[in-house]
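Q: Protein A?
A:
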Amino acid sequence: MEKATKRNKKEAQPVLIVKPVSKTLGLDYLHISLIALVIILVALAFALSGFRPGQGVINCPYGIMNSSCAGPIHTSAQALSAAEQALVGYSDVNTSLSLLPYYSLVNQSSVSYLNASDEWLVVIPYRDPLLKNQTFSISLLLYDSNLTLVTPYLQTLKPPYQTVGRTVAFGVVNITGRVLCTTTTPVPMYTFIDPYAPGAIAAIYKGINASAKYGNEINNSYKFIYTGYAQKYYSTYGINQTQLAGRYLFCASKQPSKFVAFLKNYSIESTGNPLDNLSLEGIVVGSGLNTTKFDSCLLYNSTQILDAQASLASFYNVSMTPAYVVNCKYETIPQTLYSAINYTLGGLNTTK
């Protein structure tokens, strides 16, 4: 009997014990895990339901910061306008950079917002007249907060100040606060000349050639003023003798048919220093001008008119000569005069 009992114990089968689920939970761990997974998938689907391909690019062009779209305070147009204002400031730099506003191709500019630094980058191509008109670029970095200049990337020198004027096209500076004289042709062109400035006579010829080229589309008049180029002679030659050249040039310009001859003879006679009255009278006679008309202009009109021209130059903030103001609004220099005239006439044609 004892042996039979032992054999039965060896042959006994294992028993599967199923533990009842707690009545308080109602679910086993497997079901709980499956439910949690479903909840996570539903939440993920809800989060992705608002996302569409390209939506972030359309609605947030400058990226997302702090769970919201990042963006500049100012627009790209405002940034470009501020860069144009900064560019005009170079016109008063006593280096070749003073030509920069007149050779800049602002209509080809690119404007980018730098989200990481809250700055605008404006890249403006320009033609360098000293390097066979090769095209280069000046990069201007501006704070988005107030659109003031951070730094230029052409060189390390910043302009002395940021002007209210703007560089608006190749060779053209818009004089802020001035308006067009006319919206039809002919448009007035003021030629501001200091007789002792480098290239003064050549600039007058440039004005004469422009009058001939554009015919009835422009009306050129000469404004002779005395800047630092003339003033440096005051202590040696006196104010009266120094200013005689401007008065003679002005009265000669009132006889257009003989003005070129006067310029030619004046250039031959001039040594760069102020000429005396006798020498200037000889040029008048040798150039074939009507001496009666000339003397009348010289004695009764020239001083008052030149004073008025000096006031006009001050009104337009002319700080260097030779300079031209086309249609009372756009300023240019001899090298870019034709570009300024074309720009002005093109604008008039657009508005017609």
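Q: Protein B?
A:
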Amino acid sequence: MSNKIASKRYAVALFDTVKNEELDSLLADAQSLSTTIGESEELASLLKSPLTKNEIKSNVLLNVISGLASERILNGLVTTLKKNKRLNLFEAILNEFQDVLFEKRGYQKAKVTTAHTIGEQTKKNIQELLHNQYGSKLNLEFQVNKSLLGGMTVIIGSKMIDLSIINQVSKFTNNVKGDI
């Protein structure tokens, strides 16, 4: 079974076992942990390394989640993953859990990719524009891809809006080729 499928299954099981009133605190903790793991290269590589023993991985994770509002729930997840030798999926499960929760609450996932890091005010402006256009039930995810050269791409469901410089250069090049 692929890691993506396994992560999704664990995330759905996690969602199903958590009480409704605990979902928001678990979501906040999952987002915080995802950011922490994403920013810490050592932690991410430790979790993914097949050479690191599960005992060490679980001890590190238990220390990281210590004191969080959803510590009890996350302890159960870590224990289950340790037993099943799947601790390498911890970060992916947290990300999938966020997607599952938003999906169950009726949110549509939107991915905004820009050529450069943008400020909070610009993010708010983009969010406001997209909410006005597509409704308030959007879960926005911002990414950076320098190959766009400038501008941005927005993917909402199966719809893609490409406002990148690379796309405009490509269109111009195709038009010039067509004229020759």
